[in-house]
Amino acid sequence: MRDRFYLASAHGNTGSNMVWHCHNKRGYHTNLVLAHTFTRKEAQEEFNQGICQPVSADHVDALSIWKVDHQYIPFETILSDDVDAYVLFQAKRHDGNDVYWMDDELFNSSTDFSKASVYTRDQAERCTRKNKSLVAIPYSDADQAKRRVFEARLFNPRIMVQGAGLRIPKAVKLLRRRVRSPKVRFNCPKCGKLNWQHNPYDFEVCKHCDHIGD
Q1: Please, which domain of life does this record's source organism belong to (predicted)?
Q2: Is the CB of residue 53 less than 8 Å from the CB of residue 42?
Q3: Residues 212 and 204 sit within 8 Å (Cβ to Cβ)
Q4: Rounded distance, CA 17 to CA 68, Å?
């Protein structure tokens, strides 16, 4: 394993994605291409301060996926006679800033851009005409805007921290015992199943049936 670590921001995640210190610690971003790489020694020094969480870059890279931030793509349908490859996403539905792409094979939607189905112009036009909540844009537009991210649910400290050679400082151990979970529980109003989310006021989306809150 290489001597490489990323440093997670202490300010929390953006949607389901972990946020990282950018190159030379100038700002924060979910885009792994912009994440600063620390040596094990540097990561341990940061960890000893008890503020930010270092994570093995090799493990993060291996589990990263492609997502697209809605701020960098058109927000309404764009169809052109010169383009015959399109992707569809759900309007006004986001995970943090990331859009949900339609996957016809699974009859589902996912923020993972690699799972997005590709449609011809005629197929995209029919889909958006039938379902007004869908937006069609050229595949090339989305492909150019994609970035590699790491979902926080995949973080495993035993493997990605201790297993990567870092020691947990005593101060961090004490802090973890005091910190309560930042998530709150909601029962889906449609299927009734339990969901945990960061928003304590409004139900967002069911991870079981995909019902979206009002």
Answers
A1: Bacteria
A2: no
A3: yes
A4: 12
User: Which pLDDT band holds residue 50 (cuts at 50, 70, 90)?
Assistant: confident
Among 6-15, 111-120, 124-133, 174-183, the least confident range: 174-183
Instruction: Give the predicted TM-score (pTM) of the model.
Output: 0.78
Q: What tokens does 109 get?
A: 């939607």
* Residue 95 three-state SS: strand
CA quadruple 70, 73, 75, 81: dihedral, nearest 10: -150
Q: Residue 183: what pLDDT?
A: 81
Instruction: Name the residue ranges covered by the structural domains of the chain.
Output: 5-64+150-179, 68-146, 183-214
Cα distances from 15 to residues 19, 24, 149, 190, 196, in angstroms, run 10, 24, 11, 22, 13
